[in-house]
Inverse folding.
């Protein structure tokens, strides 16, 4: 069975998004979780996908132009991720979206389709988000591993990553790594 790996950037108080509606503390959206060698598919929620597609299409088409979320030119790691995802199948969990600009994009309508996707042969699947999708898939027992990059700040207001999670889940700490700028990488297995 394929693993479903979720990766999220959060604050110490568990926020993935600040009061402005985005994670203003994140300087780049590259693969800081080390998933590229391990995955061959990406999964996103329907609420997140349009912005994700727009952000990465902009970087792919104009790699020297500042990205619209960060206001900075893409980092070398973001350019590497942009090349990787251009060739990687994407699955979008949505009951309403029916079209995408990216040709390797398919739509999934329910949790049973994600469970079936995990049964197919292949590498792990990277669950990129958003938070509601991540919480619902954790509640459904479909997420196998949680990779967090914790930023050394308290956001206060904003959206909590686990705010909509309904079930208690045990986590098994698999790896801790201190990163630059006081960030910490945490990898958990989910019971």
């Amino acid at each position: 069975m394929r693993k479903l790996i979720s990766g999220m950037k959060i604050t110490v108080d568990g926020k993935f998004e600040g009061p402005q509606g985005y994670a203003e503390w994140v300087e780049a959206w590259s693969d800081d979780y080390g998933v590229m060698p391990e995955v061959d598919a990406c999964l996103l929620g329907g609420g997140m996908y349009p912005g994700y597609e727009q952000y990465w299409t902009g970087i792919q088409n104009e790699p020297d132009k500042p990205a619209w979320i960060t206001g900075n030119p893409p980092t070398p790691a973001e350019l590497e991720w942009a090349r990787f995802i251009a060739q990687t199948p994407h699955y979008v969990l949505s009951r309403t979206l029916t079209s995408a600009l990216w040709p390797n994009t398919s739509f999934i309508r329910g949790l049973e389709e994600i469970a079936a996707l995990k049964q197919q042969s292949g590498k792990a699947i990277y669950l990129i988000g958003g938070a509601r999708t991540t919480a619902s898939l954790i509640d459904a027992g479909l997420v196998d591993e949680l990779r967090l990059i914790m930023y050394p700040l308290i956001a206060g207001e904003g959206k909590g990553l686990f705010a909509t999670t309904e079930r208690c889940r045990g986590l098994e700490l698999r790896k801790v790594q201190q990163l630059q700028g006081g960030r910490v990488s945490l990898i958990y297995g989910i019971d």
